[in-house]
Amino acid sequence: MPLNDTKLITQIQRGNTACANELVERYYSSILRYCSWHCNNIDRAEDLAQETFLRVFRDIYTYEQKGSFKAYLYTIAHHLCIDENRKYRTSELNENFPIEDQQLRQVEDRDQINSLLNLLTPSQKEAILLHYGEQLSFREISQILDIPARTVQSRVRAALSILRKENL
User: In terms of C-beta density within 10 A (0-12 exposed, 13-18 middle, 19 or more buried), how is residue 29 classed?
Assistant: First the structure.
């Protein structure tokens, strides 16, 4: 039976490198996908994903469980992506974006998805990507963005309203 995140981290803190590998395997593809939404260059997205894990393991011995580890991991990736965007000011959606809202699922063209997402404010777009693209809860997103969960929920609702109006 696989260990949960808390037990994996405890084992990593005790020096179990196999658990470190399991943690990377568990989250690497999701973090890479998230980073790729924030930059055009897949090589740069891979660098950001790797940097996310380097920072996690650098600080693993002082890490204390204060909520979801997944949210902690995405928080690190989020901050790295913000720094990256400040450098290059580019943001494009990965074509594998799994849209969950039924009406929005019908949008198949990547350019159409990008143009729809570009109608949103950056904060709305981020909330949509984290909630629907990464299947994170409003509570986890609130931890990542350091805002109240109700604010996240409002941003998602407002964004979906905008996207539905444009998609109809």
Answer: exposed
